[in-house]
């Protein structure tokens, strides 16, 4: 196993490279890298029980999704045959969490399921290690392949809604995948990330207006159709933080921020009843205050008595449920699976990414990374993900890849 070593470079050249504009179309995306990242993306496309255009059994969908991890590892080895890696603390923390998860899962009452999930997490992290040579590149290739995967998922959702609108909106009137059974919260997650990254890259003049407009229009339409409040709130807060990091250095950001605030005030005044109705999703005030019953599950799961060792290290990776009900909170689910150890590790690598972003040079890389970090923090309240193989870990990996120095260059 080889570790990349950064050669010496002239200070003036290094500074010029760090402040040069991003090149997102100067080089083509490596096909094998796109296939490897796409296989990872499919691996975390958790299939739901929603009806689809082609009536494929749920077990077949699970086999296709989970089997793609092995394909991702093989493709990563093909794209990185010399097994060159870039050392970084973010993946070290993920690796420690995955190894401890395996140790705990071996002693879990649900040995087979917990051990399988832990091995899957280890394979997921191994594949991320194999792709580290593409971290920090000036053409932000991992961000580009991630956005292509998001485009692929959203296009499948839009096509499914056009072919079978009844099946696409069968989940209580919320838009879901009818080609691949993607649940509404995941669809909203992909739409929110594509929307925000398109807006940020356009404000930084990294992508053109037509490209950004298409991504924003499609993402907004899909996001509204999913009726998912967490994704919308995370996108708003994440874009606001990213825009604030660019506010002083980009005139387009200042103009866009002022226009957006003005538009938001006008739209909120004129369409307040419709906005409230959309956000309520037909729920009562009591249901909304309990986050659709989530707080009851959280209280019941946290009130159960556990031995001291389980309190520290959990019961092993699970399906993120309690007494048959979904936990729907990353921090509660992590406490149940990995105890306080898992919470400490996840808080540590999120704080690490925040420190890296704050100390990074101002620009589109830092802005997009800040969005990913803030979005994952907001979503972690009512979604699970950072304690297991998920799209949220892919988002944070892209953020880490944007914040590390360029390969072959020494950070000043």
Descriptive report:
The structure is a single chain. The protein has 18 helices and four strands. It has helices spanning 11-19, 31-43, 58-79, 89-106, 111-130, 141-163, 165-168, 184-203, 209-226, 229-246, 251-270, 272-280, 285-289, 294-303, 308-313, 330-359, 364-379, 391-403, and strands at 2-3, 84-85, 321-322, 325-326. 42% of the residues are buried. The chain has a two-stranded parallel ribbon with strand order 1-2. The chain has a two-stranded antiparallel sheet with strand order 3-4. A hairpin with a 2-residue loop joins strand 3 and strand 4 (325-326). The two termini are 26 Å apart. Helix 6 (141-163) packs across helix 9 (209-226), helix 8 runs parallel beside helix 10 (229-246) and helix 17 packs antiparallel against helix 18 (391-403). The chain has one domain (27-281, 297-403). It is mostly helical. The model is unreliable at 1-20 (pLDDT under 50).
Descriptive key words:
mainly alpha, two-stranded parallel ribbon, 18 helices
Structural class: mainly alpha
Strand order of the largest sheet: 1-2
Strand runs, count: 4
Tally of separate helices: 18
Query: Describe the biggest sheet?
Result: 2 strands, parallel
Q: Strand portion, in percent? A: under 5%
Give the N-terminus to C-terminus distance in angstroms.
26 Å
Low-confidence sequence ranges? 1-20
| Oligomeric assembly | single chain
Rough outline = globular
How many structural units, i.e. domains?
1
CA-atom Rg in angstroms:
21 Å
Q: Please state the average pLDDT score.
A: 87
Residues in helix, %:
55-70%
Give a nutshell description of this structure.
The chain is an all-alpha fold.
């Amino acid at each position: 196993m080889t570790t990349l070593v950064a050669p010496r470079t002239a200070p003036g050249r290094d500074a010029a490279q760090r402040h040069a504009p991003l090149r997102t179309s100067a080089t083509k995306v490596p096909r094998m890298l796109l296939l490897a990242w796409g296989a990872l993306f499919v691996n975390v496309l958790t299939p739901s029980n929603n009806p689809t255009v082609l009536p494929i059994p749920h077990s077949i969908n699970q086999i296709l999704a989970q089997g793609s991890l092995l394909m991702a590892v093989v493709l990563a080895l093909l794209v990185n045959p010399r097994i060159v890696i870039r050392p970084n603390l973010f993946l070290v923390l993920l690796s420690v969490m995955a190894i401890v998860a395996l140790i705990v899962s071996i002693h879990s009452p649900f040995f087979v399921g917990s051990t399988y999930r832990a091995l899957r997490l280890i394979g997921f992290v191994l594949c991320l290690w194999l792709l580290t040579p593409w971290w920090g590149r000036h053409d932000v290739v991992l961000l580009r392949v991630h956005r292509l995967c998001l485009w692929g998922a959203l296009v499948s959702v839009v096509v499914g809604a056009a072919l079978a609108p009844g099946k696409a909106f069968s989940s209580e009137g919320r838009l879901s995948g009818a080609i691949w059974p993607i649940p509404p919260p995941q669809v909203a997650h992909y739409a929110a990330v594509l929307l925000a990254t398109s807006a940020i890259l356009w404000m930084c003049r990294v992508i053109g207006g037509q490209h950004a407009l298409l991504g924003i229009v499609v993402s907004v339409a899909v996001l509204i159709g999913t009726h998912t409040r967490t994704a919308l709130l995370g996108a708003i807060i994440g874009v606001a933080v990213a825009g604030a990091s660019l506010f002083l250095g980009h005139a387009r950001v200042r103009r866009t921020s002022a226009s957006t605030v003005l538009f938001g005030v006008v739209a909120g005044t004129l369409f307040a009843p419709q906005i409230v109705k959309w956000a309520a999703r037909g729920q009562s005030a009591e249901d909304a205050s309990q986050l659709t019953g989530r707080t009851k599950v959280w209280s019941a799961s946290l009130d159960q008595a556990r031995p001291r060792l389980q309190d520290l290290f959990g019961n092993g990776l699970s399906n993120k449920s309690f007494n048959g009900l979904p936990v729907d909170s990353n921090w509660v689910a992590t406490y149940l699976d990995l105890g306080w150890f898992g919470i400490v590790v996840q808080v540590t690598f999120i704080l690490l990414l925040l420190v890296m972003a704050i100390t990074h040079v101002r620009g589109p890389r830092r802005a997009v990374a800040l969005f990913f970090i803030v979005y994952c923090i907001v979503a972690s309240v009512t979604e699970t993900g950072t304690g297991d193989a998920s799209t949220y870990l892919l988002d944070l990996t892209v953020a880490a890849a944007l914040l590390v120095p360029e390969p072959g260059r020494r950070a000043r």
